[in-house]
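Allow me, if you will, to draw on your knowledge of protein folds for a short while. I am sending you one protein, given as its amino acid sequence and as whole-number tokens for its backbone shapes. Kindly check, if you would, that the fold set down in the tokens agrees with what the sequence suggests. The record follows directly beneath this note:
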Amino acid sequence: MNLRRYIYWPKMRQDVSRYIRDCVLCNTSKPSNKKLGLYHPLPVPSRPWDSISVDFLGLLPKTKFGNDYLFVVVDRFSKMIILIPCKKTVTREGAAKLFFQHVWKHFGLPTSIISDKDSQFLGHFLRSL
């Protein structure tokens, strides 16, 4: 907004600058003034399949079964990778079913599941387990 179009007073520029500089709400909500924290390494798991990372990889060429994505599960302790073919359209319920069939059935439920907050891993996926 250009304030000078509607109003003027002597030393207006200094007054507005001072107001903005001293405004607590303005300074705390400006993204440039928020200090970013340092990344902290994840703790090393104490045993295999205690902590896993999950993500989807695609779009890949379609297989004869129509799969065009991979559901990637990595054990953070051993670095073992499980690649589960799936479709791009897999639902949260479908991802939970794949997880159960290919991971939980063999290794049990991990203590922690790390993801990039993909919608397939939020809410219903974890509740489905």
Summary: The longest helix spans residues 92-107. The radius of gyration is 25 Å.
